[in-house]
Write a structure and sequence with these properties.
133 residues, alpha/beta, four-stranded mixed beta sheet, 6 helices
C-alpha cells in the first residue's frame, strides 16, 4: 500500500506573520495550490489556498503586502498522518474539497500531499510499486 510518507513533498510551510506576498511566492515556488501555516513548534494551525489569495486580492486589491498568512488562512485544517494510505488521502480531498493535505507526525508538519501527487500515483502506479507494503 502506498502511504503519504512515500509521495509527500517535504516541509513547505509559512509562519502566521508571513506577508501575503511571501505566501504567494512560496506557493508558486512549491508548485502546490495551498500551503500550511505553522506555529513556532511546526504544528499546523491553518492552511492558505489559492482561493484564499484570490479572495483577498479581490477584496483588498494590491494590498497583499499588508495581509498576513494568519489573516488569509482557514483554521482547523484537516491533516493526515504520514502513514495514511493513498486511498484515505484521496477520500479526504474529495470529501472536503481540498487540493492539499498537510502530513504530520504527531502534531508536527513533516510534508504535504497535493492532488497532483495522488493522481500521479494512479496514472503511473509502476513508478511507486517499490513503496507498496
Amino acid at each position: 500500500m502506498i502511504r503519504a510518507k512515500y509521495i509527500m513533498c517535504k516541509r513547505t510551510a509559512v509562519l502566521k506573520n508571513t506577508t501575503g506576498r511571501e505566501v504567494v511566492y512560496k506557493m508558486m515556488a512549491s508548485g502546490c495550490p495551498g500551503i500550511p501555516v505553522v506555529n513556532e513548534q511546526a504544528e499546523v494551525i491553518g492552511m492558505v489556498s489559492m482561493c484564499d489569495i484570490l479572495k483577498a486580492a479581490k477584496e483588498k486589491g494590491a494590498a497583499i503586502d499588508t495581509i498576513t498568512a494568519e489573516q488569509l488562512m482557514s483554521t482547523n485544517p484537516i491533516t493526515a498522518d504520514r502513514d495514511a494510505s493513498l486511498d484515505d488521502l484521496a477520500k479526504m480531498m474529495v470529501d472536503n474539497n481540498y487540493s492539499v493535505i498537510p502530513i504530520v507526525k504527531g502534531k508536527k508538519l513533516v510534508g504535504i500531499v497535493s492532488a497532483r501527487e495522488i493522481v500521479d500515483t494512479y496514472v503511473e502506479p509502476h513508478l511507486y510499486s517499490t513503496f507498496e507494503e
